[in-house]
Amino acid sequence: MIFKRHNNIDFSKGPVWKCIISQAIPLTVAQFVQLLYNVIDRIYLGHMGEGHSLALTGVGLTFPVITLIMAFTALFGHGGIPLFSIERGRGNKERAGRILGNSFALLSVSGMILMLLCFIFSKPVLYAFGASDTSFVYAQRYLRIYLFGTLFSMIATGLNGYISAQGYPGTGMLSTVIGAVLNMLLDPLFIFGFKLGVSGAALATVISQIISAIWVMRFLIRRDIPVPLIKENVKLDKRITIDICRLGASNFIMQGTNFAVQVVCNSTLSVYGGDLYVGIMTVTNSVREIFILPINGIISGAQPVISYNYGAKDYKRARAGINFNTVLGVVYTMFAWLAVIAFPHFFFALFSEDILLLDAGIDALKIYFFGFVFMALQFAGQSSFQALGDAKHAIFFSLLRKAFIVVPLTLILPAAGFGVKGVFLAEPVSNVIGGLACFITMRLTAYKKLK
């Protein structure tokens, strides 16, 4: 009865905006609760009392490792979803099923390998990311437990998109809601009740990831959904693997460059500002993750609709999807930007009330969010390239904003006299340049061809 199936959304019928909204709302909720896995940890850790600033700093130092894991999840999971949707639009369910099975195999193998490698090299990696002798203790405690959930996290996150791509966004939402609610219940129990601190936060996250993975798998193996996951398709096919990696490369690079940015930011801040500013960056990234969720929800809702209609050669509907995706994203990011500028203290205090963090962190938060609206243009262009299978442009613009703009600026601006403010200033500069370049190119190339 838990898995009683509702009618799925037909991407070929009705107003395109309605199809996207029907997908985007539950997927935004899903994105939000997915973020709660880590954000709830930080909120509780930020209110532990004495020493909580170092706990936040320690967890922040693990972000690059977690981002690396999510990069491979995006490569092998999200890389297959546009291909899966295009094949469904063409009516080729057999090949769509092989893409799903191949994606599951890639996620499973890479999950085990990543868990072992990250566990073995955790100490030198954390010090390379900017850990001090005091913050390393907290970072290691959190990461060693978190890594045991690597396989389950990759399966839950990487395969959940295949549920929504078949027109079941509500079920996809529940996949993450269940795990997040469990995480919220277990966090205070383990952190404060059992007095496990950062170890308790990591343990709660791992248990939640396991439950989410079980939910996703139980739904996908059902034979009464359009394209189920069957044993015969769970194998590595060279051609399909190449196609998945080709299109997923842009997701991987986007996450991978986030990894590089986090490493450079933490190491630069440890030099110019010490553990205090690494903690401030942890809070700033947490606020950004919350505000970027609706954009991800809109993209996740629009991509399968655009891909499906592109595969069905209904280019008018594909163009309508891109237009709506762009307008909705710009309107939302404008309001989000204004909210942060107007109420910075409120958003920063969600994660920490430490006076030292608040005094320096509010100004850093305002700088970091300046020009946030241009993020909508970056995501609109990027997601459109992916939805239409344009791997070349998707990869290039994944690299441009982070690797070619943010990383160099993060190193140059502090040394040029901006100090720690230069680290936070690199983000808005990249948003403006990268966002405009990506969106304009998309309109002049991929969009223009949809006639």
Overall description:
The protein is mostly helical and 451 residues long. The protein has one domain. The chain contains 19 helices and no strands. The protein has helices at 16-45, 52-61, 63-78, 81-89, 93-120, 122-128, 133-146, 150-164, 169-193, 198-220, 238-272, 275-311, 315-342, 344-349, 355-369, 374-387, 391-418, 420-444, 446-449. The longest helix is centred in the middle third of the chain and has 37 residues, at 275-311. The chain is globular and about 60 Å long. The chain starts with 15 loop residues before the first helix and ends with a helix. The model is unreliable at 1-5 (pLDDT under 50).
What is the strand and helix layout of this fold?
Blueprint: H1 16-45, H2 52-61, H3 63-78, H4 81-89, H5 93-120, H6 122-128, H7 133-146, H8 150-164, H9 169-193, H10 198-220, H11 238-272, H12 275-311, H13 315-342, H14 344-349, H15 355-369, H16 374-387, H17 391-418, H18 420-444, H19 446-449
Helix pairs in contact: 1-9, 1-10, 1-12, 2-7, 2-12, 3-5, 3-8, 3-11, 4-5, 4-12, 5-8, 6-7, 7-10, 8-9, 8-10, 9-10, 11-12, 11-17, 12-13, 12-15, 12-16, 13-16, 15-18, 16-17, 16-18, 17-18
